[in-house]
DNA sequence: GACGATTTGGACAAGTGTGTCTAAAAATAT
DNA sequence: ATATTTTTAGACACACTTGTCCAAATCGTC
């Protein structure tokens, strides 16, 4: 099986490489021009591929959009999961640790390429093709919020925070982290690292004023 | 002049009524389908007008978009201004008054028809036609934030709040108010009044935990 | 009732985009 | 080196849209 497999893998590599290249280019163009305004010739050119190849791989323009959304949401879910794993469960300096976490959240999930794509696609096509994002809606925000809420609940239990409703607190944390970035993100501005840091600091300060304890009881 | 005016007004009324009707329909279709996907025949039909009339009034598809954006941003600015005027400068029950204010903000500026339109147009066309929204960007968010910050600063000065940076606090207040609504708004869900009230209550509670004083020093 | 302006419906040219098809070229595996 | 598969480039039909033009119809005013 192994010798017979090798060719399959090789073919699959080139094949899937093109597939990815097409999806990336399509994501880019869909986001820039909108679904209706997106031109398949342009996507093909941007992917360095002939138009026919695009049709060979994804058949349809609508199908291509589906593939793009699936790919982006998958990547985003991975990024969120990885970043959540870096939550400061055993903080040393709670404020500094939460700020660092918030910065990572912004850099790896919200302000990066995929985050921008997902946000744009959600806003442009979310209302028209709700089914496209139904899967993400269940697997994405809901689980993220719940996971973050669980982390905060543990911090509260350990005496670092005073929280009534961890779910609400988690959503508020995320809202505060984005408070200063919304406008820039809408217009596609590139955010400097310092801006990210300032935004995160403002957010965490506010969050800790609301939910922090004067002095941690444990550790 | 008055008799000579009457016809003009009458004509103008019918004229401007059609103009508005066209702009409303165009806003609707642009938001649903995106600029490229918007069909002028559809806009005309939805406005109850012949296609030629659309061209008579606005000349161009792009011109029509400009008119739509101008109209929507104007209306939004008025709504924000009016709502800001209802800020509880002399609160009786600070939490209740701020909650009521937040609910008004959501109902009159953010979750209403125009708010939805502006949000959608910003996301779909903001990056491609930044000039379209340049005027709003200066007259809208910046002034709103400043005005709200001034109100909070006065509350702080009167002893109700403890705020370092009123500008940051104002942005955070708005971010908190929207924390629970983002997802629903993206998918165009209609929000019940109870949802708005709950969201506002959560937001104000968090805001006051962060910036409220244990007991107001003055009335 | 007649006038002027606006609106209407339809036809029209021109351009653009999708999706299919074909034969030639390239790449890969045997 | 050869056979199989993928990719390419181009042509193609078809549908759709934009923006214009025009004559008939409608509306409100005098």
Write a concise keyword list for the protein shown above:
homodimer; 219 residues; Arc Repressor Mutant, subunit A; Tetracycline Repressor, domain 2; 2 domains; elongated; DNA-binding
What topology emerges from the helices and strands here?
Two copies of one chain form a homodimer.
Chain A (H helix, E strand, L loop, with lengths): L1 H36 L2 H8 L3 H8 L2 H24 L9 H17 L2 H13 L4 H28 L8 H13 L3 H5 L6 H19 L8
Helix pairs in contact in A: 1-2, 1-4, 1-6, 2-3, 4-5, 4-6, 4-7, 5-10, 7-8, 8-10
Chain A binds a DNA duplex (30 and 30 nucleotides) through helix 1 and helix 3.
Notes on the protein architecture:
Chains A, B: Residues 16-76 form the HTH tetR-type domain. Chains A, B: Keywords: DNA-binding. Chains A, B: This is AcrR family transcriptional regulator. Chains A, B: It holds the Pfam family TetR_C_7. Chains A, B: Residues 39-58 bind DNA. The structure is a homodimer of 219-residue chains. By secondary structure, chain A is an all-alpha fold. Chain A folds into two domains: 1-59, Orthogonal Bundle (Arc Repressor Mutant, subunit A); 70-219, Tetracycline Repressor, domain 2 (Orthogonal Bundle). In chain A, 78% of the residues lie in helices and 0% in strands. Chain A has ten helices and no strands. In chain A, helix 1 (2-37) crosses helix 2 (40-47), helix 5 packs across helix 10 (193-211) and helix 8 (166-178) runs antiparallel to helix 10 (193-211). The radius of gyration of chain A is 21 Å and the shape is elongated. Chain A binds chain B through residues 32-37, 119-120, 122-124, 126-128, 130, 133, 137, 141, 168-169, 171-172, 174-176, 178-180, 182-183, 186-188, 202-203, 206-207, 209-211, and chain B through 32-37, 119-120, 122-124, 126-128, 130, 133, 137, 141, 168-169, 171-172, 174-176, 178-180, 182-183, 186-188, 202-203, 206-207, 209-211. Chain A binds a DNA duplex (30 and 30 nucleotides) through helix 1 and helix 3.
């Amino acid at each position: 099986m192994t010798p017979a497999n090798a060719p399959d893998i090789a073919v699959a590599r080139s094949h899937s490489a093109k597939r990815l290249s097409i999806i990336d280019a399509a994501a880019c163009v869909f986001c820039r021009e909108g679904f209706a305004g997106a031109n398949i010739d342009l996507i093909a050119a941007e992917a360095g591929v002939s138009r026919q190849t695009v049709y060979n791989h994804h058949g349809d323009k609508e199908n291509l959009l589906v593939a793009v959304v699936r790919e982006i949401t998958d990547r985003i879910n991975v990024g969120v999961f990885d970043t959540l794993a870096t939550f400061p469960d055993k903080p040393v300096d709670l404020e500094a640790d939460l700020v660092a976490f918030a910065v990572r959240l912004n850099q790896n999930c919200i302000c990066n390429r995929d985050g921008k794509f997902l946000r744009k696609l959600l806003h442009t096509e979310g209302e028209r093709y709700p089914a496209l994002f139904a899967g993400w809606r269940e697997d994405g925000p809901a689980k993220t919020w719940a996971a973050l809420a669980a982390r905060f609940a543990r911090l509260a239990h350990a005496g670092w925070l005073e929280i009534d409703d961890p779910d609400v607190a988690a959503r508020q944390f995320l809202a505060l982290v984005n408070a200063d970035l919304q406008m820039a993100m809408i217009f596609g501005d590139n955010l400097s690292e310092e801006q990210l840091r300032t935004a995160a600091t403002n957010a965490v300060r506010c969050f800790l004023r609301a939910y922090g304890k004067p002095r941690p009881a444990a550790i």
